[in-house]
Amino acid sequence: MSFEGKETMLRVVRQEAELFFGMVGADGVWEAPTGAGHWEVRDVVAHLTDTTESYFVAFDAARSDAEVPPAYGLPGMAERVDRQALALREVPQAELIDRLRTDFDKMMGMFDALGPDDWAGFTVPHFYMGPLPVFFYPAFQLMDYGVHSWDIRQGTGRAHGLSGEAADLLVPFMFVLWKYTTGAKDPCELGIRITSGPNAGDTRVSVGPDGMDYAAGDVSDLRAVIEFDPGSFVLTAFGRSNAGTIRGDRAVADRYLNLFFRI
Description:
Layout: H1 6-24, H2 41-64, H3 77-86, H4 93-112, H5 116-121, E1 123-126, E2 130-133, H6 136-155, H7 164-180, E3 188-194, E4 201-208, E5 211-216, E6 224-228, H8 230-237, E7 245-248, H9 250-257
Parallel strand pairs: 3-6
Antiparallel strand pairs: 1-2, 3-4, 4-5, 6-7
Helix pairs in contact: 1-4, 1-6, 2-3, 2-4, 2-6, 6-7, 7-8
Organism: Kribbella speibonae
GO molecular function, one term: isomerase activity
Protein name: Maleylpyruvate isomerase family mycothiol-dependent enzyme
């Protein structure tokens, strides 16, 4: 999340995007199933196109100090992005991929131009989440190209996994994702342990009527701890898998894992 991580973040976004474009441009895959519910490969491409183009609107509004509507909110996000993606379903493969590639190159050029004062100091209104520091937007692109590449591979039925660098970079953002997608506010406290990678460590998480809070800290006094490797953590937070090793009270862990709605 710091400016020092910018070049690494952008390098890995480009890396994941190239893998994505290689897969979606192949013959015979356009209407293939994916791991993203009922979406076909063409719907994933449409979703990334719609999402990226919404970022251009957000950046323009931030730079012009224009008024924007209140954040749409995450509870309705899944339904809306589905509608937006399916609206582009009939666009031909080559045309839609070319459109997304153009959008991607434009977006990365905007990220390249961000300086140290911009990275955490420039606020851009996200359509669903409201105002966010601009460093979230490269992370969102990494989520899109990394996780949705996983979705496309999942649709093939072949064994596969999430790339280490992408998963490592996304670990801190998964706590933010959970915080914004907490549904029921039943009191719950437990530890999350990331077992490997540069963001390995223990985090204390508590959920209550006011939402979710988390902070790094000792978890040895908690009734339950869930251990994840980085890839399993990302895929669990995104609702793509039910992973993790439960240490301690299973009832506490089960309650926690079922507090979140999926986007």
